[in-house]
Write a structure and sequence with these properties.
It is a single chain. This protein is α/β, with parallel strands linked by helices. It contains seven helices and 15 strands. The mean pLDDT is 97. The structure holds arginine (ARG). Residues 27-28, 31, 71, 74, 76-77, 96, 125, 174, 176-177, 262-264, 268 line the site of arginine.
Length: 275
């Protein structure tokens, strides 16, 4: 199938501008507090990402940035929603804890069913949703941030099967650095980020997945956002763009060099809202 046959679905996203973005603490291997970020460039790159999603016909809501929460630009970590129900985040590190409250207030004001979590989980950083696979399957990562107990909690809150996958490489500390949904039933992933058993599970459930290599993952090529046809990914991830093109999608590259300094890229900056 080529990209003219693949049908995009209109999406609703939530983003938060990098107005207070800095790298002042290091909670993942990509963060280097000795290299200053360029705030103007970060905001410019973020704006291009927001405008690109809008130009593709998607709705983008913007959450106000809060001073003192430099990682809030990674809006994907604030919650995980499926069919109008929101499973709230509870961050691993205290530096990010208050971000969950800002997201909870957003969903509260929007009339969503919001479930506050008992267990540590970092929202869409560690949860991906495939509405067309196995009756609506949630893929869930653990090993660095999200507590496996949160996977069972998410299943109870959302009423969807949740499949636990163990991440083993600290460079790929969130599921969304190693695996992405390309459409309602297709994924792309870097096998080396997962335990041998989790690799076997993925190979069994997703025999037609797009397989990425370590260089793709290091270029944040799996940290992508797809509407089912257009795949938005980092400019560095040219090879990954060619892989998704070969699978029939249309790559759209965006330069997010500044957000990479915090250990994130396209997907980290974009939460999908599923009403
Ligand atoms: N500095 C942030 C952290 O380490 C980056 C989060 C990236 N977000 C993501 N969805 N992978 O928590």
């Amino acid at each position: 199938m080529n990209h003219t046959e693949r049908l995009p679905r209109n999406r609703t996203y939530l983003m938060c501008p990098p107005e207070h973005f800095t790298v002042e603490y290091a909670i993942n291997p990509w963060m280097d507090t000795s290299v200053p970020v360029d705030p103007a460039l970060a905001l410019k790159q973020w704006s291009i990402l927001r405008d690109t999603l809008g130009d593709l016909g998607h709705t983008v809501h913007v959450l106000d940035a809060v001073p003192g929460l430099p990682d809030m630009v990674y809006a994907a970590n604030g919650a995980f929603s499926v069919d109008g129900t929101v499973y709230g985040a509870r961050f691993r590190y205290p530096e990010r804890a208050a971000e969950a409250d800002a997201h909870a207030a957003f969903y509260g004001a929007g009339g969503w069913r919001y479930a506050g979590p008992a267990h540590i989980n970092e929202g869409e950083g560690d949860f991906a949703y495939l509405p067309g696979a196995y009756g609506g399957l949630v893929l869930a990562g653990y090993g660095f941030r999200t507590d496996p107990a949160a996977h069972a909690e998410a299943q109870e809150v959302l009423g969807r099967p949740v499949l636990s996958l163990r991440l083993v490489d600290p460079a790929f500390y969130h599921l969304d650095t190693a695996l992405a949904a390309l459409d309602d039933r297709t994924i792309a992933y870097y096998p080396g980020a997962f335990s041998a058993a989790s690799q076997r599970v993925l190979a069994q459930l997703f025999p037609d997945a797009v397989i990425a290599d370590r260089a793709d993952a290091e270029a944040f090529g799996l940290n992508l956002v797809s509407d089912g046809r257009h795949v938005i990914l980092n400019t560095e991830a040219i090879a990954m763009g060619e892989r998704v093109r070969a699978a029939g999608y249309l790559p759209v590259h965006i330069d997010l060099s500044e957000l990479k300094r915090g250990g994130g890229s396209v997907k980290c900056a974009v939460a999908e809202l599923r009403p």
